[in-house]
Specification:
The protein is an alpha/beta fold. The chain has two domains: about 140 residues, Response regulator (Rossmann fold); about 150 residues, Response regulator (Rossmann fold, 3-Layer(aba) Sandwich), CATH 3.40.50.2300. Helix content is about 35%, strand content about 25%. The protein is built from ten helices and 14 strands. The strands form two sheets. The protein has an eight-stranded mixed sheet with strand order 1-2-4-3-5-6-7-13, with helices on both faces. Helix 9 links the parallel strand 11 and strand 12. Its main location: other. InterPro entries: Peripla_BP_I, SBP_2_dom. Pfam families: Peripla_BP_4 (PF13407). Belongs to the bacterial solute-binding protein 2 family.
């Protein structure tokens, strides 16, 4: 098998990473049904339009690459998988250009992680117009004519899990009242709204309404540096703040850097159980994180993409959200970080 081909192509304003893992090398175009890969196998071409490569999404993508490589090495599999990858860096216009670039490659399926549930709709429409199957790849889209959908994370449920952890904390610390700052991701992203709304069940619960107060919510665009700056502002504006909850680990760890510099203690919750967050728990900087098993997500995502690309039977919606969620705090951190 030839080595993985890695070439950086510029198509318009989008940088498209072309990665081909077929034994016979890179396929250029074709209609999908007549292409052949290594050892006479039919080649399936998959386009992946990722929304970002933050730490969590990088974990998902790296596992997907591992699975593709293993699939191609297994002689019992009927296909050889080639793939194209793009990263929108959380920019809708970039994603639209990325998908146009993928369409030009004429893959057998395109898997799109929507940057915005409304703004990314034209990308799905473009796939439909080009008669290329398109998968809503885990982030939700306000478009009903996709070929299939992968529901990976119950974002509202993850927010509720954060709320439940804080309720347990309050039950164990009867003299504590939590004054909370919430660090959100990007405005207009449905999943981030759902995470926030799930956390807000804490403040709506009659049993805790006098012991948990939301002081402010701010968007920090998934940036640790922005969250650090926001936390510095909050410590001045809200000296009573003693709890920070975030839509991901990177932002809450940025906030905790600001707190550590000021020698301020905080209850702090993140999400995604990234290595950054897990190490933060190990070091006593982060209290807990809600994790998602990206190995399971990557495996189910690739299996769905292969099924769609090869015209095999598949469900319109594949929901794995209940399988992938877990909680990490000081009680079980040693299971994840040695």
């Amino acid at each position: 098998m030839k080595k993985v081909l890695k070439k950086l192509l510029c198509v318009g304003l989008a940088a498209v990473l072309i990665l081909s893992m077929a034994a016979c090398g890179k396929q250029e175009g074709g209609n999908g049904s007549s292409k052949e890969g290594g050892a006479g196998k039919e080649a399936l071409t998959i386009g992946f339009a990722f929304r970002s490569l933050d730490e969590a999404m990088t974990g998902w993508w790296e596992k997907t690459e591992e699975l593709i490589e293993a699939y191609n090495k297994d002689d019992s599999n009927p296909y050889t998988i080639e793939y194209f990858f793009t990263n929108a860096n959380l920019d809708v216009d970039t994603q639209l250009s990325d998908v146009d670039s993928l369409i030009a490659r004429n893959p057998d399926v395109i898997c799109i992680q929507a940057v915005d549930s409304d703004g990314s709709v034209p990308a799905f429409e473009a796939c439909t117009s080009a008669e290329i199957p398109v998968i809503d790849f885990g982030f939700g889209i306000n478009y009903e004519d996709y070929t299939a959908s992968l529901l990976t994370i119950d974002h509202y449920g993850a927010g509720v899990a954060q709320a439940d952890w804080l309720k347990k904390y309050l039950d164990e610390n009867k003299d504590v009242t939590l004054n909370v700052g919430y660090i959100n991701g990007a405005q207009g992203v449905k999943q981030m709204t759902e995470r926030y709304e799930g956390l807000c069940t804490l403040f709506e619960d009659e049993a805790y309404k006098d012991r948990a107060k939301l002081l402010e919510m701010q968007y920090c665009n998934f940036s640790a540096d922005t969250a650090l700056s926001q936390m510095e502002d909050w410590m001045q504006t809200y000296p009573e703040m003693n709890c920070v909850v975030s839509a991901n680990d990177e932002m809450v760890m940025g906030a905790m850097q600001a707190c550590a510099s000021a020698n301020v203690k905080m209850v702090s919750l993140g999400m995604d159980a990234t290595q950054t967050g897990l190490q933060g728990i190990k070091d006593g900087l982060e209290s807990a994180t809600i994790g998602f098993d990206f190995d399971i997500i990557a495996e189910n995502g690739l299996n769905l993409a292969i099924a769609v690309a090869s015209d095999k039977t598949f469900e319109k919606t594949t929901d794995i959200s209940k399988e992938v969620t877990y909680i990490v705090d000081s009680s079980n951190i040693d299971e994840y970080v040695k």
